[in-house]
Specification:
Helix content is 40%, strand content 22%. GO terms for molecular function: ATP binding; ATP hydrolysis activity.
Length: 258
Amino acid sequence: MIRVENLHRHFGGFRAVDGASLEIATGSITGLVGPNGAGKSTLFNVIAGALPPTSGRVTMDGEDITGLAPHELFHKGLLRTFQIAHEFSSMTCRENLMMVPGAQSGESLWSAWVHRARIREEEAALLKKADEVLDFLTISHLKDELAGNLSGGQKKLLELGRTMMVDAKVVFLDEVGAGVNRTLLNTIGDAIQRLNRERGYTFCVIEHDMDFIARLCDPVIVMAEGKVLAEGSIAEIKSDERVIEAYLGTGLKNKETA
């Protein structure tokens, strides 16, 4: 589905992404791991249109999407979440979800005057869908709660719910487990697996919790210093000498002889 070819993103002389190439297969839950500063979030930002690449190419289902703006990618079904959830804190959870779909009739002043019946129908459909999403995520009891009052994990669930309000094809999740307790992280993991299995979502997940990655992801891609270092199953990644060295600063062979 997503192919990244020799992608670079430089900030002056610093090469945050330095010739990364990878593929995210349709229907997969692909893990993206690596030490801090490896370039993972920058790679996400370039793919999702938040940053233009210095060079390289990104395609989605064979279509060149390099450098497209986030709203253009949104309409193509490519969405991303962030390390810190971006909710509308003064709106309820239900209202946060209802805000997501674009081109709503109520956004037009003219339609607000002459197409009130259509607006009521659209809002009723959005309300029904929002309630279905909240129920799917097991947070329906929070539908009328202000989003700003939610815990970190609940905000991550709500952010995942926003991707369900449109026809998402591929979702990039950036540290979905950051600041989330184990119980809610398990709930988030369950929701990701169900979306993948039941609705055909493709995911790419940045996460430092290797147990979470092991539970959800196959394959796992490892980045270091802006490059793709290794790719394989979680077992292959954990036993890869290059990966161990990137994380620990020394390889198993060096540790054994030390």
